[in-house]
Structures are given as C-alpha cells and as structure tokens.
Amino acid sequence: MMKDGDDRIIYIGKAKNLRKRVSSYFKQPSGDAASMGYDSSRWKTSKLISRIRDLDYVLTDNEVEAFLLESNLIKKYRPIFNIELKDQQRYTYLKVTNEPFPRLLVARRNANGDLYGPKGKVYGPFVYGSSKFLTIGLLRKIFKIRICNKLPKKPCLEYFLRNCDAPCINNTTMQDYMKNIKSLQNILEGKSDISKFMGEMEVEMKQASQNRDYERAQQIRDTLHRLRNLSVKQKMEKAALRYSNEEYVGIIKLVHEGVAHVMTLRRRNGVISDMKKFEFELLGDNSLASFLCQYYSSSPEIPQLIYVNEVPESSIALTESIKRFTDHDVKIILVSDKTKEKGELMDLILRNLWRHAENGFPPEVVELKELLHLSAIPSVIDCFDVSNLGTKYAVGACTRFVNGKPQKECYRRFKIKLTFSQNDFAMMHEIVSRRYSFLKVNNPQVTECTLPDLIVVDGGKGQLSSAVSALKKAGLHIPCISIAKENESIYSPNLISPIQIPRRTQALKLIQNLRDEAHRFGLAYNRHLRKLGDSD
Fold first, then answer.
1. pLDDT digit string (tens) for 88-97?
2. What is the pTM (predicted TM-score) of this model?
3. Which one-letter DSSP state was computed for residue 175?
C-alpha cells in the first residue's frame, strides 16, 4: 500500500515477491511527459513514484487471499492510481424508508460506497434492466405507497389516480398502510412470491364483490393486472438463469497511451442481455486479472462461464477468488479461433473496442489500420532505410512517428559493422536486429523499451524478408511492411501480391512521410561520415 504525504493510500498492489515488484517501480526512468512523449504508462508511473512518501504491506497465505484482500482494500480506500470501475451504469438498490408512512425509493451508492437519501432498509443490488428496477413505479402503485417527500395537508394527484390511499388526510390507517409495506418487503426479501400475494388479493377481491363493494373490487382487479405483468417478467428472468449463463470479456491495450479498454457482454440462453464498456490505466500491476476480480466482487450475479481473449495472470488463483463471491463453479476460458460462434462474439467485442479507441487517434492512423487489416492501431511506427556508397560509407537509419508526428528523440542511426559487401538485404537485417537488441541485453540505461505497433521498410520483397527474418530471430511479432519507390507498392509478408493504396489517401501520405524522413536522416549521416573521411 503506497501512501502520499497526507498518509492517504494512493496505490495498492500485490505480488509473490514484494521486493522485486516494489523495486521495479523505482527503476523507471525519471522525466516529464515531454521527454517520455510516446510512453504514457512510464510517465504515469513516474507521477505515482513522485507522490509516494510511505509504504505499508500485508502478508497473505496464498494468491487467492491476496486477490480478495486487494479487491476489498481498493473498494475501501479507492486509491486514485488503481483500477476504478467506471461504467455508464451503477447498480441499483431499492430502499424502504424508516418513516412513519414509509416510501419506496431507488437508491445508489456514492463515491464512498454510502447510499444516498434517507435512512431505511435496503434491498439489492439489482442490475439495470431487472424487473424490480423497471417496475418501481408499478410496485408503488400495487402497494399504494406514497411518493411525496413529506406528508402534505391535502391529497395529491396520485390519490385521484388511485395509486395512493392518501395517508396525508388519514384516509388509511397506519396498520393498513404497514400491511402493504410488509407484503412488499416479503416479496423483495424472497419470503413470498408474487403468485402467493396474488392469491390473497383474488380472495379479497371476491369478498369485496360479494359485499357489493364494487369500487374496492375494481381497485384490486387493476392491481392484479399489474401484478400479472410483473410476474411474467420475473418468470422470464428465472427461466433465463436455468439455462446457460456466460459472459465475454474482451480487452485491448494501448500501451503507448497507457490505457486498457474493456468490454463485457452477458449472454443468457443464447440471447445477449447486457454490454458495458470500461477503461483503466496500465499502471503498476493493473491488469485483466485485477479488473476481473474487481468487476465480479461488485457484480450482483456471476456467470458460470467467463470467456476472455487473453489468459489473465494467476488464472487459477483468480478463478478461486471469484468463486468466493458466488455459490457455484466458475470457469475462465480463452476463446480460440476454432470456436466459431464464440470467436465471432469476441470479434464483435474487439471491433467495438477498437472503434471506441479510434476516436482519440488521427484519421490517417486509423485509415492505415483498416487498409492493412492490422489488429491494433499503429500509433507508433518505426521506419528503416539503408544508405550506402560502396561499403566504406554504409549506414542505416530508423525514424519513429507517434500518432502521425515525428518523435525525433527516438530516431536512431547505425554505421554498418557486420556486413562487408554491398548487400542491402544483409544491411537491413543488421540494423533491424541492432535496433531492438536492448530486449536481449536488458540494459537498465536504455529508456526506449516500448516496441512499435508497425514497422515500415524502405524497399521491396527482399528488404522486407530481411527485416521479418531479423524480427523472428529476436522473438518479436510486430507487423511489418515495405514500400517500393517505383509504384509506391506496399508489400506484406502475408500477401503474394502487393497492395496499391490510393495515392490521395492520408494513410499512404503517412507511409511516404515516414520513408522520406528515414531517407533524409540516413543520407545526412552518410554525408557526415564522408565529410569526416575526406577531412582525414
């Protein structure tokens, strides 16, 4: 638990080895947002570190306890750097107030977890769309519950609409009013169901009719009609729960933005019933596992099957943690491409997430993703070019564009060292290998540990094959294309024929700018070396 100068907890994390986890935060390179430009997550971590003044910790016996404790502490202290589930909905509660003539209210929790409004007995939570929430007005009418904030001195419109018995003018006794309140509470608590209450109402209606109290009988008949509508909805909900109950959770990570987007899709009996979007910062150990633990610890209903597009860390411990919140088994399953129906649903989620995430990116970057059929938005693009005049003055250059703009502090130039002939393919292999060699040496002095979303190579199929070979050798899986100068053809290792992007598109102009900038940067270095050689 990391605390600031006011002793407030600002971040809570967990790890099997706390020493390694905590020290990893303080190994982050220092600097402001401008110097780190393209890596928002590092900047956010540095902001966290700058505010830490004290550390506290708790030991647990196992990972399951760690998940549960972390979830509870985050809910209790609401640290500003942890995942906070912000959704367009909040879970709904029903409240019967502690007033002389109680009211039925919709209640929601505030930022501290407290319920708004007057004191009373709370029922729930209910998800948005559940029959109890949708029919709160109906429940008030059925049980003749007043809606006024305080008892007026004369009856309101609700009395004349026969929705309230007007306790304000002593039109009903406290005993009769509380009888209705008690019946409502029994239904909300599950002590009795609507069908039982309807049976009692039908008996009362027949007695009123026999006593020729036709107005009272008509009121009960109208109430029964409303109850039947409510009963149908509840039966539909219960029937749905008997069948398959599953949820799909898709996540995309914009590493360079330091943000993860998550969408959940609930499906009951083959029918999609709910979709929600969330986002959280990629900070510390904020991850899919942390999100799932927080999400289901606050969920009024947990499905038996949870489908994900990536395996969360410590998945076994996470599953055991989630099972503590419910009374049935829970399985977390990775959706594979082979499962057609489930794969299509997950693909739907990811398409929605990318569409949502694309709003914050320049149009040319989004257009490039669609034209190249990339799985992620290429917000960070590296471009390689070889510039040589014989073998004596052979150099390579790498430029980087972030969101369509040059990031010059990330440019790199290379003097060819391992290729001793005028072989452009071998030179391309060399500079691509050297550009990402920091991943092998793990040099703590290197601050550019963020990989690009796309690599562009100046050249044709040969240069592209050399670059792809270098990436495979380094164990990297980064989309890579090349652009040939003659017809501005785009080559991809997955396609036999080149792609011809329309010349007027912003996406092609972006690739051309990358290529031209890499050529300019490499040529300037080549000229610099020749100038030094001539002076020697």
1. 344 567 788 9
2. 0.50
3. H
